[in-house]
Amino acid sequence: MIIMDSKAQLTVDIITKVSEREITIVNTAKLLNKSRRTIERYLQKYQEVGIQFVIHQNSGKSPINKISDAVKRAVQTLIQEKYFDVNLAHLKELLEDNEHIQVKRETLRCWAHEIHHVKRAKRRRAKARKRRERMESPGLLLQMDGSPHRWFGDKKSCLIAIIDDATSEIHAEFFRSEITLGCLKVLRDYIDQKGLFKALYVDRADIFGGPNGVTSLRCNEPVTS
Predict the structure, then answer these.
(1) Angle at CA 52, nearest 5°, toward 47 and 56?
(2) What is the mean pLDDT of the chain?
(3) pLDDT tier, 224 (very low <50, low <70, confident <90, very high otherwise)
(4) Where are the beta strands (DSSP E) in the chain?
(5) Largest CB tally within 10 Å, which of 91, 101, 170, 180?
(6) How far apart are CA 101 and CA 96, in angstroms?
(7) Domain regions of the chain by residue span
(8) pTM above 0.85, yes or no
């Protein structure tokens, strides 16, 4: 008895028609999405052994590179008794170094799942971060940043803004780009309206000194014109 799937059955049906000259080799190659040489080889095999030509010679045989069941059982025993507290990546290394057994990581994963043993790599616990409370009074902390964007159609401009940490009040103005003079102008306008602030925090943009530049400014003396 020969058991075939739908794909093999289709191949047999078409090659049979080719053998009976009902279909040309060219059209068969298109139907099966194979090369002309492959169709000719199918036809030759069909004429020699019949429909068995579709059955691969290795069908029903174990792959040459298949790991023996004895090795599988030995590894599973090692996992349960000796390496029960390691993850798969470490397990692979230990098997190679200590037991001289080389097994692919995916194979190890399947074997470990079979015996209900899965040891994942430890993840570092995220550092707890406490939410910072807002400043109690206006002017104690200002934050400044620039936001380049196409605010008005296709023309790109930059919104330079100062926000008060205590009240969320915003002082901002549009400029062609994030430039030092623009930041100083917004800062001066704030001082003219609200008076001297205590501290100013900015990002590490080039205009403030770059990645290694100062990111905070504290004012202890009045600002004069």
Answers:
(1) 120
(2) 78
(3) very low
(4) 142-152, 155-164, 170-175, 199-202, 216-218
(5) 91
(6) 5
(7) 6-54, 69-114, 142-218
(8) no
